[in-house]
Amino acid sequence: MDEISEMPLFMQAKLVRVLQEREFYRIGGKTPIRMRCRIISATNRNLEKMVENREFREDLFYRINVIHIKLPPLRERKEDIPLLTKKFLEKFSKLNDKTIVGVEEDAMELFMDYDWPGNVRQLENVIERVVALCQSEFIKVEHLPKRIKEHSYKTAHSLDLDSAWNLNLFEIEKNVILKILQEENYNQTKTAQRLGISRKQFRTKMKNYGLL
């Protein structure tokens, strides 16, 4: 039962009776039907607080709270992202009759940097959209939604040379990197080539400037 916290109070009362009596009636039925089941429910809200505020029945809360498993948000278990991405790629590639082998390194790095406020559902939605748009065997940075690229590297601003005299060398270099990143559609390899440095050196600079 997903999002059980959204269940209306009158439905909660009916569920409590079913769990207690272990029987129910079909709509329009007159004969009780015995049942044997286990309830697995989920919510992203604090049910204890809802009980205190009388938004959720206390008796139902204690009936479903036998074994409590807290699942951390995706941003706190980013090691799951590659595996989930692979699973969703296989799912939507099959649905769209496409052969997409995987995700390029630069694109996966953006996935790993993003906070995913919508958790696994948001990741699934992004993969579904990307697969629909992708015409190659690999997902590239150019296929990703703008919000993911901008979140990972922050919004790139043009470097105003007239105001550059008010910036220190650290800020100037950071602005140059951001500007080229934007021009190269956030492709790290191409940006490093334009800067005349190796990709490893470029990654080090990104970390120093807090862009990774």
Description:
The chain has helices at residues 9-21, 47-52, 58-64, 81-95, 105-113, 119-133, 146-153, 169-183, 188-195, 199-208, and strands at 23-24, 33-34, 102-103, 138-139. It folds into 3 domains: 4-64, no CATH class; 74-153, Helicase, Ruva Protein, domain 3, CATH 1.10.8.60; 164-208, Arc Repressor Mutant, subunit A (Orthogonal Bundle), CATH 1.10.10. It has 212 residues and is mainly α. Helix content is 50%, strand content 4%. The relative contact order is 0.08. The protein is built from 10 helices and 4 strands; from the N terminus they run αββαααβααβαααα. The strands form 2 sheets. A two-stranded antiparallel ribbon has the order 1-2.
Number of strands: 4
Largest sheet: 2 strands, antiparallel
Number of helices: 10
Strand order of the largest sheet: 1-2
**Structural class by SSE content:** mainly alpha
Q: How many domains comprise the coordinates?
A: 3
Strand % is under 5%
Low-confidence stretches: 154-161
Radius of gyration: 25 Å
Tell me what the CATH architecture of the largest domain is.
Answer: Orthogonal Bundle
| CATH third-level topology of the largest domain | Helicase, Ruva Protein, domain 3
Query: Given the C-alpha coordinates, what overall shape results?
Result: elongated
Brief characterization of the structure:
With 212 residues, this protein is mostly helical.
Structure keywords:
mainly alpha; Helicase, Ruva Protein, domain 3; Arc Repressor Mutant, subunit A; 212 residues; 10 helices
Layout of helices and strands, plus pairs?
Layout: H1 9-21, E1 23-24, E2 33-34, H2 47-52, H3 58-64, H4 81-95, E3 102-103, H5 105-113, H6 119-133, E4 138-139, H7 146-153, H8 169-183, H9 188-195, H10 199-208
Parallel strand pairs: 3-4
Antiparallel strand pairs: 1-2
Helix pairs in contact: 4-6, 9-10
